[in-house]
Amino acid sequence: MRRPAVFAKLLAAAALAVPGMGHAAEGMWMPGQAPALAAKLREAGLAIPPERLADLAAAPMGAIASLGGCSASFVSPHGLVATNHHCVLGSIQFNASAGRNLIRDGFLAKTRAEELPAAPGTRVFVIEALDDVTTDMLAGVTPKLTGAARIRQLEANRKALVAACEAEPGIRCEVRSYFGGRQYWQQRMLEIRDVRLVHAPAASVGNFGGEVDNWQWPRHTGDYSFYRAYVGPDGKPAAYAAENVPYTPRAHLRIARDDLKEGDFVLIAGFPGVTERFRTAAETEGWYGRIYPRQQRMLADYSALIARESRSEADTIAYASIKAGADNFAKKIAGQLAVARQFDLVGLKRAEEQRLAQWAARPANRRTHGLAIANFDSLTAQALAADEARLVNATLNRAQLLNAARTLYRWANEQMKPDAERKPGFQERDRQALADRLSLIDRRYVARIDRAILEQALAEVATLPPGQRNTALEAKIAELGLDRLYAETRLADPKERLAWLDRPVADFIASDDPFIQLAVAAYAQDMAAEARRKDLDGRLDAARTARMAAVMAHAASEGRLLYPDANGSLRFTYGHVRGRPARDGEAWTAFTTARGILEKDTGRDPFDSPPALLAALREGKWGPLASPSLGTLPVNFLSTTDITNGNSGSAVLNAKGELVGLAFDGTLEGMLSDWWFDEATTRTISVDARYMRFVMERVDGAAGLLAEMGVAP
Predict the structure, then answer these.
(1) What is the DSSP letter of 375?
(2) Which residues, other chains included, contact 214 with Cβ-Cβ below 8 Å and sequence gap of 6+?
(3) Is residue 223 annotated as part of the catalytic site, yes or no?
(4) Catalytic one among 648, 650, 673, 686?
(5) Active site includes 252?
(6) 648 catalytic, yes or no?
(7) For the segment 408-422, what is each residue's pLDDT rounded down to a tens digit?
(8) What integer pLDDT is reported at residue 398 of this predicted model?
(9) Around 54, how many Cα atoms within 13 Å sit in the side-chain half-sphere?
């Protein structure tokens, strides 16, 4: 990719900082692509056979797990799972109370009997297979289909594949699109439903620096925690039960004992969420010029409302994980917007498109690829308007009882169809996940705050044109009034809420519960809006697939190997431990150390380390946990690896495939990377495994867990 002059200067400076090292490797690669990258991986420093990265039954990739939004890894043969503190915050919050503030104080189960059930819906997914199902997915998908018919055919094919894959109990399967619909792969996963909270440090360790330091460097955050996965006595996935036993993974990661130092090879394995690197210049301009600014402002307003309306410790605990998520995403988008302006992201995309257009204009390419590019571009404005409207309307779902009522009524309507004809997300396979989401409301709902959230969302939605809103829903809310909605509803009762899962449509229509009445009133317009969106999505899917064929053919003509955009599936990325020059010549070192915690600590949130940690740091007895190259205890480190949301909790491995840390963040300067990767600015922030071990041993008394991981103090 072409880079502006400032990028080239940064890249040259970064290369000079570590003599003899090759440049970082861009890419979130599929495991099956490892053999094609073998030479580059060896050159970069990988010491294990590169082909091993394609083996999902052996370490290291066989030890990598998904939490369905975060990444994780098995670190013992007894089902112990390492991930980020912020990835388990929902489970910490679920088990916390004003009298037992686990968010503030942390948690350690000294024995397995003391481990706490994770929040409802928590899962550990273990990949067993990744199969190419492109032919089956595209069966019956022809250019003659309307947009809606195309989506129906793809949905039918996907549901048939998933149903066959899930014939065995305890298996969860997903079919995902790659390269804009040019390929489809199915992930077959073991779905572990009994997940228990084992250990989480205090928030002043796991979230040291809070929002002040979020997306920043230098960083001194102990963002780690542990779950344990349990299965039934027969070794198969089962719901929580006292007689369940720890799951025995096919592989687990060993904790590295060698020094990790600047310039060393590292590899990150996890489940990155979504990247947009194949988006066009017009799409980029729409998102960065209009949609992202609005989304960032809505998230900031949402967080501010929660902070303003939380009047007690119980309120703060109830909305802790919700607010943290809003704050995190709002700050990320703000960083994306600033960096996109600074480096002219739209200009970079236009230059890239110009090269593609010149290639597509050649006589041999014009009739196929040239037409495909023009066809996709003709749909961009309509798609951007629909994306913005969908984003704004989704704010109504922040009101938990309204969202529950609409979801339950949709569930009841879908139950009237054969299971294979139901909308994905509303099939029988989804019932438990839906029940878990409904149960979560118990610990994350305060009526006064929920009402304020609904009022804020209604005001935002009112700015849309009537044709992009559910006017029937708005009219019913005006008729009933918010006072009646919250005073007369029975959906705040968990038993009543779950009971609606088994009630027919007729009961909804006859109900006097005001939130149920809202769901019934909104349904017809909800379905009409969904039908319109399906038709647009189908036309976009066909056009994007054809455009992607041009992009792939262009890359092949230049001998370039492409990786697909991130889509929540298993990937690996590799690079090196490396700092970078920052603004005004202010260099970023590759590591932060214990001294930085002492310098930052103020005794006040968010820089209020536990007294026991401060005492241990001042004592300065690091023992074997000291880095010989640094002469002290490392805390966090930077690497040139390529990650995004969803990679939180990903295992960071050394050249031998051993665990050296957990990825937990990027930097604001690297926020361009979701749409445009540049090795000079993109950096991953990880917590060093040596700091994790130090806090566990010296502060939290988790010697038993360290012994289980094979690194007994």
Answers:
(1) H
(2) 327, 328, 331, 665
(3) yes
(4) 648
(5) no
(6) yes
(7) 999 999 999 999 999
(8) 98
(9) 11
- What values do phi and psi take at 383, rounded to 5? -65, -40
Q: What is the pTM of this model?
A: 0.94
**CA-based nearest residue to 160, from 190, 192, 186, 127:** 186
Six token digits for residue 399: 């009101």
Q: What are phi and psi of 499, to 5 degrees?
A: -65, -25
User: Residue 44 and residue 33: Cα distance in Å, rounded?
Assistant: 16
Assess whether the previous peptide bond of 218 is cis (omega < 30° from 0).
Answer: yes
Over residues 356-412, the pLDDT tens digits come to 999 999 999 999 999 999 999 999 999 999 999 999 999 999 999 999 999 999 999
Domain residue limits, the chain = 31-123+193-273+567-708, 127-191, 281-553
Distance CA 295, CA 334 (A): 10
- Both tokens of residue 304? 């501010």
Q: Taking a C-beta distance cutoff of 8 angstroms, is the pair 210, 600 a contact?
A: no
Q: What is the share, in percent, of the chain residues with pLDDT greater than 90?
A: 94
DSSP line for 436-500: HHHHHGGGS--HHHHHHHHHHHHHHHTTS-GGGS-HHHHHHHHHH-HHHHHHH--TTSHHHHHHG
- The mean pLDDT value for 230-239 works out to 97
Tokens of 465: 């044109």
| pLDDT for 23 beyond 50 | no
Q: Which option is the CATH number for 31-123+193-273+567-708: 3.30.450.40, 2.40.10.120, 1.10.10.60, 2.60.120.560?
A: 2.40.10.120
**What does the pLDDT read at residue 19?**
26
- Could you say which of 85, 86, 199, 252 is catalytic? 86
Q: What is the pLDDT of residue 391?
A: 98
Q: What is the mean pLDDT of residues 453-469?
A: 97
Phi and psi of 97, rounded to 5°? -150, 170
